[in-house]
Amino acid sequence: MKKNNRRWLGGVALILSLLTLSACGSSGPTQADFDSLQERVAGLEQQLAAKEQELEELKSTVVAINQAGGSVDASAPSDNGPADKGDDVRITFDQYQQIVIGMTYDEVKNIVGGDGSALSETADMIVYSYYGAGDTGANAILSFNKGKLLSKAQAGLE
Question: Cys staple from 138: which of 10, 85, 132, 152, with CB 3.0 to 4.6 Å?
Answer without folding.
Answer: 132
